[in-house]
Amino acid sequence: MDTERDRGRRWRPATRLVRGGAVRSPFGETSEALFLTSGFCYANAAEAAARFRGEAEGFVYSRYSNPTVRMFLDRLAALEEAEAASATASGMAAVSAALLAQVKAGDHVVAARALFGSCRYVLDELLPRFGVAVSLVDGTDLAQWRAALRPGTVCAFVETPANPTLELVDLRAVADLCHAVGARLIVDNVFATPLLQRPIRLGADIVVYSATKHIDGHGRCLGGAILGDAAFCEGILSPFLRHTGPSLSPFNAWVLLKGLETLAVRLDRQVRSSTELARFLCGLDGLRRVLYPGLADHPQHELATRQMSGFGTVVAFEIDGGQARAFRFLDGLRLIDISNNLGDAKSLITHPLSTTHQRLGAEECARLGIGAGLVRLSVGLEDVEDLKEDLQQALAAA
Ligand SMILES: *Cc1c(COP(=O)(O)O)cnc(C)c1O
Known about the structure:
The protein is globular. It has 2 domains: about 5-260, 3-Layer(aba) Sandwich (Aspartate Aminotransferase, domain 2), CATH 3.40.640; about 265-395, Aspartate Aminotransferase, domain 1 (Alpha-Beta Complex), CATH 3.90.1150.10. By secondary structure, the protein is of the alpha/beta class. The model has no long low-confidence stretch (mean pLDDT about 95). The chain is about 40% helix and about 15% strand. The longest helix has 20 residues, at about 265-280. A 7-stranded mixed β-sheet has the order 1-7-6-5-4-2-3, with helices on both faces. It has a 5-stranded mixed β-sheet with strand order 8-9-12-11-10. It has helices at about 5-10, 15-20, 45-50, 65-80, 90-100, 115-130, 140-150, 170-180, 195, 230-245, 250-260, 265-280, 300-305, 320-330, 360-370, 385-395; strands spanning about 85-90, 110, 135, 155-160, 185-190, 205-210, 225-230, 285-290, 315-320, 335-340, 350, 375-380. Pyridoxal-5'-phosphate binds near residues 163, 191 and 224.
């Protein structure tokens, strides 16, 4: 007989988002049940012992797993076509666990330089503190990848499109280079979402998400997930997570399950609006450049077309006049909120140099293309005409 899991994988992605992983209790509830419990009871002492030995089916403790968390993971794993998945309390818990679970002193890790600020902290500060050598490369340059990867490289870490410059990494090519030296490729797929880019199909070994972003999609809670093959997830990652405990709360898992149900329709609208806004911004005065992988003048537009089925919901643009004018522009917006989150139903805008990437300093930011005038817009579900009017009036006033 099919398991629930196998059943989920026969459906198309939009159906998997609504039905995948759902398991009904004997009450026959329509919506997935919220099992807000830390522990589970056993019929007898022998059964408790068997579950602890891993010889009997069933939940043990919500730090390990929980029925609502399981439904969220099975839904996401069905979508991603991953063998296994683990949930974490935030995206950063997913990133740090995916790295820390597999390295030891003396190991080597390679990462693309263009990353979310906190991911850079883990690579720049945390791993070296434990004796792990980290090489940073320009993720777009395959020659640098070839030079940096070596026997003894345990894993590589990339984000594509990258935050906030929307620079792309060729996943198929980098996965092949990693595998040639026996390294695993970890992809932070937040900007693309599980619907617009399929890293595992492109050769990646591990995919991490901040579910806080599009998967929740309404700015309600934090969450994260790590997906990959069973040998890594069950053999290496799972013991690390069980004993360090960055577990996802069942309540947040339930919120994220509901978020997945509407992901396809939200993304459809948000990607369309992002494309329209990117084109609209190109026609406005006072902007130095507009960055969106869907624009024909994006330096990696051809790669984006090959490796993504949609170009995402974030548009970055550089305002003439540096930080002072960028701040006046942000302060002049009446509809779009100044906030560092993204993937929300509400359109949100941030100035990366002074917020998410502040820790890197102006010099490293300049190297990454994060100038004083750069702003990052996460496009929400509002009417795109209202968004255009707001951007235009704030730019004129700045
Ligand atoms: C937000 C984000 C993270 C971290 O996620 P949290 O849920 O905020 O911990 C990691 N990577 C990328 C690309 C992000 O945008």
